[in-house]
Amino acid sequence: MAGKIDARLAELGIEIATPAAPQANYVPFVISGNLVYVSGQVPVVDGEVRFKGKVGDDVDVATAAQAARACAMNLIAQVKAACDGDLDRVTRVVRLGGFVNATADFTEQPQVINGASDLLVDVFGDAGRHARFAVGAGSLPLGVSVEIDAVFEIS
């Protein structure tokens, strides 16, 4: 039987993919007590790295927000794996860290990372409201426009 969060994902028309394997020497998540620390997720969609480029140059804010949403879907995939497939164990999204591959004069990082924040609130409701940061970066791995990490509280 699907849980409450799985039902919410279905209602939103969202299918959570199998989480991507790490591309370097790290683990995708670490559980410490009741917290799950999810490593930075990039916009991998259907097994393919998407949304490459520099925001403020060849990527606009709306497209970068879509990249952030894709990162959030990958965060959910990783926390689902950490919870043995049971997303109802997520009691709170504690914090997001958002990195935007942006030009030096770009200042709309919060609007970009809203793509992830909005999805997490849509999926987890009030438990999806979180603390966060949104900063610009000179470059990101694989040339992606956005990378996001997160901390989740679980039961």
Give the overall pLDDT as a whole number. 97
Gyration radius over CA: 15 Å
Largest sheet, if any? Answer: 5 strands, mixed
- What spatial order of strands do you see in the largest sheet? 1-2-7-5-6
Distance between the termini: 19 Å
Key attributes of the depicted protein:
155 residues, alpha+beta, two-stranded antiparallel ribbon, 28% strand
Describe this structure in words.
With 155 residues, the chain is α+β, with helices and mostly antiparallel strands. The chain has one domain: RutC-like (60s Ribosomal Protein L30, Chain: A, 2-Layer Sandwich). Helix content is 30%, strand content 28%. The protein has 3 helices and 7 strands, in the order αββββαβαββ. It has a 5-stranded mixed sheet with strand order 1-2-7-5-6. A two-stranded antiparallel sheet has the order 3-4. Helix 3 links the parallel strand 5 and strand 6. Helix 2 crosses helix 3. The longest helix is centred in the middle third of the chain and has 22 residues. The two termini are 19 Å apart.
Structural topology:
Blueprint: H1 4-12, E1 29-32, E2 35-41, E3 44-45, E4 48-49, H2 61-82, E5 90-101, H3 109-124, E6 131-137, E7 146-154
Parallel strand pairs: 5-6
Antiparallel strand pairs: 1-2, 2-7, 3-4, 5-7
Helix pairs in contact: 2-3
Summary, kept brief:
With 155 residues, the chain is of the alpha+beta class. The protein has helices at 4-12, 61-82, 109-124; strands at residues 29-32, 35-41, 44-45, 48-49, 90-101, 131-137, 146-154.
